[in-house]
Amino acid sequence: MNNGTIFKKSLSFLILLSLTLSIQASGIRGTVIDKTTKEPLIGTTIQITGTNRGSITDIDGNFEFNGLAKGNYTLEVKYISYQTIILTDVAVTGSTPTLLSLEMEPENLQLDDVTVVAQMKQNTEAAMMIDQKTSLVVQSGVFAQQIARTQDKNASEVICRVPGISIIEDKFVMVRGLSQRYNNVWINNAAVPSTEADSRAFSFDMIPSSQLDNLVIVKSPVPEYQADFSGGFIKIQTKDIPERNSFSIQYGIGINDNTHFKDFYYSKGSSTDFLGFDNGLRKMRGIVPERIDNNDKDAVTEITKNGFNNDWKIRSKKPLPDQKLNLSYNRHIEMDNGREFAILSALNYSLTSKTITDMENSRFGLYNVTQDIPEYNYKYTDNVYNTHAHLGAMLNFTFRPNNRDKYELKNIFNQIGQDRYTERNGYQYISGMYVQEKHEYYYNSRTTYSGQVAGTYNRERSKFDWEAGYSYANRRQPDRRICTQEENGFVGDDYYGEIYVDQNDIERYFNSLDEHIFSLGANYMREVNWGHITLTFKAGVYGEYHNRDYNNRFLLLVEQEHTL
Asked: Fewer CB under 10 Å: which end of the chain, C or N?
């Protein structure tokens, strides 16, 4: 049984003063919908004849007039391409509002052919709600308009706002209680590789929220998507066409009273750690063969001394405040011939430190009934010192030769590095008491890149789109070192009570993961009228090629037997 406890002191004050004054006034409330489709008509104008009072329906087709005197009123309801409705003798009798439900019919006018082409924004609240209401699948999502109103730093914090979603370890997504391995993730309509070595999982903490246009979770199967998920199919879309030309720089600092201006312990790192990757300082040297002959003592000695980074010294510093930098450049060019060209780019960087102290790490044994106290197999206190670097970049190009077609080139890159030192003090009880000190030197880096070339062609009743993509992910753990020191418990020994290095418990781990995914897809959609019924025909093809390479080595040094 494991017991992990973090002790944290906090003091919070909350003062809430609320004053609500409600006055019920007489008035008129109503809803306007299409008589045939029953869909709400957004933006319908309602005018009270003979007055300057008017109203416009909201996203649900609702309108309201308040503060009307008792009497009868005439309402004029107008909407483009619909027959105008004149309502007479609408009575307002008292404090209870008069409720109306109006159904409008389209105008039966014979017009010349008119072609209207528009671009629907998918990153607004209205667009997302309409998409969810008209979708034939169960889905939910978050959009850029909502993300901009929050302080979320990355995609893992953004996706937490979707109902039914949970986050594990601040980066993995659980949909409907199913772990990350049951999800499938696409970025810009292309598959992304796993960021973990031993499971199918994508780390959502790698994508800054500023790069997101919308994020949708599909929870039911549909022919357009791969069927290898039982939790959720998560679609991430990055931004493409900016609403206006802009250039912005944002810089911020953060201070943690448990970390900054206090002693922060660390081991020597490489000169590129601040960019999120190791430059080779921690890697295994070339003299280390794939297989080691433990009987060749000279070779083992040479490998042990010169085959690895053997700097075990612990250093101390006062860390700088957390640094965060965001740069963005957006450009939208409209040419004389109706063509459009857009560039959307972003650069994100952060370097943070975090200290966690006095964490209890224990395992309970059989309960001591005689003394009525718990017994431990081991009981330690951990102090952890983390440094986290994140570098992200996005560069998207969009070209529109006309109002119907679009070509896109999208690129998104993220690099994360974590340097961690852990010191552990306590004891373990296995047939005897062993007082110990443990030290862990840990470095981990992750890289993801996703790029796509895509085209979309819209016609009056048909649509065709294609996409070709390449995605890459790697994970590096170049040298995880664990060293154990133990107290000499032999009574009468000259070194009794002193701490010495336990040569039987020095461990080193090296592992790396590289995964490549090539994808190609195309979709065709056409509407066909059959009498009074409109049928939608869809067809598509999609293919992927995966290449995954994973390497892992574990070395245990036992000096007494001169074995590696």
From this structure: N
- Neighbour count for residue 243 (Cβ, 10 Å): 10
User: CA-CA distance, 211 to 344, in Å (whole number)?
Assistant: 10
Q: CB atoms < 10 A from the CB of 416, how many?
A: 23
Per-residue CA distances from 228 to 152, 182, 220, 221, 539 (Å): 30, 8, 12, 9, 19
Are β-strands 314-317 and 322-334 bridged in parallel, bridged antiparallel, or unpaired? unpaired
| pTM for this predicted structure | 0.68
Residue 313 and residue 267 in contact, taking contact as beta carbons nearer than 8 Å: yes
Structure token pair of residue 214: 């919308």
Q: What is the dihedral sign for C-alpha 66, 67, 70, 76?
A: negative
CA distance 430 to 379: 12
- Each residue's pLDDT tens digit, 234-277: 888 887 777 778 898 989 999 998 999 899 999 999 999 999 99
Pairwise CA distance, residues 520 & 349, whole Å? 32
* Sequence-ordered list of residues with C-beta below 8 angstroms from that of 413, at least 6 positions apart, any chain: 392, 393, 394, 447, 448, 449
**Unique residue bearing structure tokens 């957390």:** 322
Q: Report the alpha-carbon distance of residue 275 to residue 436 in Å, rounded.
A: 35
103-to-75, 126, 456, 532 alpha-carbon distances in Å:
14, 22, 36, 20
User: What's the one-letter identity of residue 202?
Assistant: F
Phi, psi for residue 7 in degrees, rounded to 5: -90, 125
Q: How many CB atoms lie within 10 A of CB 464?
A: 16
Alpha helices in 294-393 (DSSP H): 297-306
User: Can you read off the two tokens belonging to residue 439?
Assistant: 């030290």
Backbone angles phi, psi at 227, to 5 degrees: -95, 20
| Residue 220, C-beta contacts closer than 8 angstroms, at least 6 positions apart | 137, 138, 139
| Residue 119 DSSP SS3 | coil
**Distance from C-alpha of 277 to C-alpha of 255, rounded to nearest angstrom:** 24
375, 321 Cβ separation under 8 angstroms: no
Distances 465 to 135, 188, 458, 517 between C-alpha atoms, Å: 19, 13, 9, 20
Q: Could you tell me which of 417, 470, 477 has the C-alpha nearest to residue 447?
A: 417
Task: Name residues whose C-beta falls within 8 Å of residue 318's C-beta, 6 or more positions apart in sequence.
Answer: 260, 261, 262, 263, 264
Express each pLDDT in 485-542 by its tens digit.
888 878 888 878 888 887 667 889 999 999 999 999 999 999 888 877 888 888 999 8
Q: Is there a contact between 418 and 352 (Cβ–Cβ < 8 Å)?
A: no
How many Å from the N-terminal Cα to the C-terminal Cα in the chain?
A: 32
**What is d(CA 125, CA 142) in angstroms, rounded to the nearest whole number?**
8
Measured between alpha carbons, how far is residue 342 from residues 186, 228, 441, 506 in Å?
A: 23, 35, 46, 56
Phi (first) and psi of residue 158, to 5 degrees? -70, -45
